[in-house]
Design brief:
The protein is an alpha/beta fold. The protein has 6 helices and 9 strands, in the order αβαβαββαββαβαββ. It has a single domain (2-182), classed as Vaccinia Virus protein VP39 (Rossmann fold).
């Protein structure tokens, strides 16, 4: 899913990617293959970093990727990226947790940097897409504060962190919607 989804977003100009909760590096691989001169940092829990290192080595990208261990719900993020990828994370968190995470991403990004959020986004009625509505029930049962969120809720939470120009880059039915927001240049 990673390569076709990233390709569907149109031209993505960036020099340094921050892959938040990057896990094995699947998404980092897709981004770096589209931008051969770009580099990345994968930020994830300490026990996940060895898996990411193996994936990047196997993909021939190890020389373009740094690895940073930590918890994105508590720790400062590595600075200097002009694009942050937040993939399948916001539904696990409450709105307050997302606002705090967005604030950490905002601080880590360079001026003019962007955040891309891949997740399920539901209609204001919270009944569409149907899969998103059902997924919200799962989050209610499986997390302390997770849910599926509307575009307006995500826009508000991103704005609270300082982001502007919040828009859809891609609308999907499940975990394939991508929202973009920008950190002002000044």
């Amino acid at each position: 899913m990673a390569a076709p989804l990233i390709s569907s977003l149109g031209p993505l100009n960036f020099t340094r990617l921050l892959d938040l909760g990057g896990a094995s590096g699947t998404w980092t691989t897709a981004f770096l293959r589209l931008r051969p001169r770009a580099s990345a940092v994968i930020f994830d829990l300490p026990e996940v970093i060895p898996m990411a290192r193996r994936t990047m080595k196997k993909a021939g990208l190890a020389g373009r990727v740094d690895f940073s261990a930590g918890d994105y719900n508590r720790d400062a993020l590595p600075a200097g990226a002009d694009l942050a990828w937040v993939s399948a994370i916001v539904h696990q968190n409450s709105r307050a947790q997302n606002r705090a995470m967005f604030a950490r991403v905002f601080t880590a990004l360079t001026a003019g940097g962007r955040i891309l959020i891949r997740d399920i986004v539901v209609a204001p009625s919270r009944t569409r897409p149907v899969g998103g509505a059902l997924f919200a029930v799962n989050m209610l049962a499986a997390t302390e504060g997770g849910a599926t969120f509307t575009f307006e809720e995500l826009r508000e939470d991103l704005a609270a962190a300082g982001f502007t120009k919040v828009k859809y880059l891609r609308r999907g039915e499940m975990m394939d919607t991508v929202i973009c927001a920008s950190k002002p240049r000044t």
